[in-house]
Design brief:
Layout: H1 3-12, H2 17-27, E1 50-51, E2 58-59, H3 60-66
Antiparallel strand pairs: 1-2
């Protein structure tokens, strides 16, 4: 279950406090200490295809847009 879907159920369980408490206990997303979901892109906020080498911390789509501005050259 993604984080966005996790919050939608609150509206349905608003009048059922016992079921809401049980839902929160078993379905809350885990706090992460490492991994992909810990590092969003600095520009757009995406989590996938992350480039953090050299401290860039952007996704690959944003990297393609800004690569020449930050000094990378395309060799081919």
């Amino acid at each position: 279950m993604t984080t966005s879907n996790y919050k939608k159920v609150f509206r349905q369980l608003r009048h059922k406090p016992v079921k809401l408490k049980k839902y929160l206990k078993h379905n809350a997303p885990d706090e992460r200490s490492c991994g992909l979901s810990l590092k969003p892109c600095r520009r757009c906020g995406r989590y996938g295809a992350h480039i953090d080498k050299y401290g860039i911390d952007v996704c690959r789509q944003c990297f393609r847009e800004i690569a020449t501005k930050i000094g990378f050259k395309k060799y081919s």
